[in-house]
Amino acid sequence: MSEQLYQERIVALAKAKTGAGKLAAPTKSARRDNPLCGDRVTIDVALDATGKIKDIAHQVRGCLLCEASASALASVAVGRDAAGIAALRHEADRALGREEGEAGEPFSAFTPVRQHKSRQDCVLLPFEALKDALS
Amino acid sequence: MSFDLAALRAQFPILSQVVNGNPLHYLDNGASAQTPLAVLDAVRTYETTGRANVVRGVHMLAERATEAYEGARAEVAAFLGVVPSEIIFTGGCTAAINLVAYSYGSLLKPGDRILLSTLEHHSNIVPWQLLRSRSGIEIDALPVTDEGRIDLSALPRMLTPRTKLVSLVHVSNVTGASLDVKTVVAAARSVGAKIMLDGAQRAPHGPLDLPSLDIDFYVFAGHKVFGPNGVGVLWARPELLEAMPPFHGGGSMIGRVTFAETTWAPPPRRFEAGTPPIGQAIGLGAACKWMRGLDWMAVHAHEMALTQRAMDGLQGIAGTRILGPSSLQDRYPVVSFALEGVHTHDVAQVLDSFGVAVRAGHHCAQPLMDHFDLAGTTRVSIAPYNDNGDIDAMLAGVEHAAKILR
Questions:
Q1: Domain that holds residue B334
Q2: B358 neighbors B27 (Cβ within 8 angstroms)
Q3: Are B380 and B310 a contacting pair, CB within 8 Å?
Q4: B397 and chain A: CB distance < 8 Å anywhere?
Q5: Chain B residues with CB inside 8 Å of A61's CB?
Q6: Whether ipTM exceeds 0.90
Q7: Last residue of a domain, one of B292, B323, B339
Q8: Count of A–B CB contacts within 8 Å?
Q9: Which is catalytic among the residues B310, B364, B391, B398?
């Protein structure tokens, strides 16, 4: 099962570390912890006057799935506002089998996590942190 | 070895199953141990021939249930080397600590101090924080050494005349380190403090002789000692139990109830309000009896040989850091490690694909993780039924995780 879980696309997303780090002057920041496992995601965003993301950075103290998710999210977040990020969350939920339909890219990479319900929060933690940062 | 490992394993039907295409290698005993047929049979006998409430019924099934329940109390007492009236059945180890924190804690005054340690499980931290909020007591925490033991050299400066209780983990659920009880007791007595030990990780490794430890409270969980879930034990000195008020109110724990006043039953009944976990307690009694039937000299040697095999193998994998004592001296068969560059949950997930069950994360010991600046560890915890194959499968899985995830 885990051989399928840690497929190349997820490992590649995690290793890409897209957006990893901090912003020098974030408009907003938010931190989310997963109390069950102790994983932690901190997200910085720089917003334009209309509330759209100009730049994003994340620090992940978490598992490979959490790193991959933060990386995937950062790769498509720029130019989106809170509603646009909420739409991406639906893509992740589709990948995880929580909603009907096919997941778009890059979140379809997380389809193998459907079978591992205990790990789905690892994928969603960066979404929760970003949602907090935009609220 | 003077015990038959194959025969022992045969008593645990769950071990024969296949997980993810591999034989099950169950190394998560520190979280929950498996249950032998003797325990399953005892619970089944109660459920099929004596299921009734205890204490107050006069019919045959109630008589059987009460006899079995009190028989279980006697088995637990024999396992600890104490008398049955000093044994309180609780909902678990956490419930037992909460009972002490609430009941004994209610006798404390603002400014009184409780001494804990950085090595404690959250269940031996949070109940005291709740007490602090209620009654204004203060909490101190002994530091830990680099090899994951409670640093007892700090005892003289951390014990004060206001310290009323020293509550420490007997064996760490993370590092496997065993407490030097004698030193703690001598120091605590010098300031008049009581001593409680959290025995959750010690009790699964053989019977105890509590009187020889000269402590005041001892707690452990049923499911970690090969018994059912939902039951635990508090042992306390009888004079302490006698002085302590009830934790929960309800049926069974009363002497006489009127709207004007209610009196309490004597211990242990005073602390067992409502219908207790009867089947679970009976199963726990059977587990204690089963454990007393093992040759623990041989079992301990077996468990520690597996521990050494695990530690040696892990040290041979590049980037592995073992969190805990480097030798087998004063330690029990729990091995926690971090694998550089690979998150502990990813290690555990890969191990699952090898049929290996371990625990990963902070192990409800976040202050300890903070101390070592770790998000978590992967923990291998060993029981008498484990074998070399279990350890070797775990090592193969860790090597594989290092290969594919780094």
A1: 5-31+295-405
A2: yes
A3: yes
A4: no
A5: 375
A6: no
A7: B292
A8: 50
A9: B364
